[in-house]
Amino acid sequence: MKSSITALISILALAAIVSGHFLGLGFSVGVGIALSIAFGLGWPHYLGIPAKKTLGTVTALTGAGAALTVGLTRDANFMVWTPIIIAVGFGAIMVVQLIRGTGQARRLESTLGAGAGVAMAGFASGWVASFRFLGEPGLTLIVAISAALALLVGVLPWPDRVAAPLAIVLGALGGPLAALLFSDVRIFPAAILGAVVAAVIASFHRLRTLAGPSRSFFGACASALAPIMSLGALVYFVEKLLLA
Question: Which of 22, 87, 217, 229 is positioned for an S-S bond with 120, CB 3.0–4.6 A?
Answer without folding.
Answer: 229
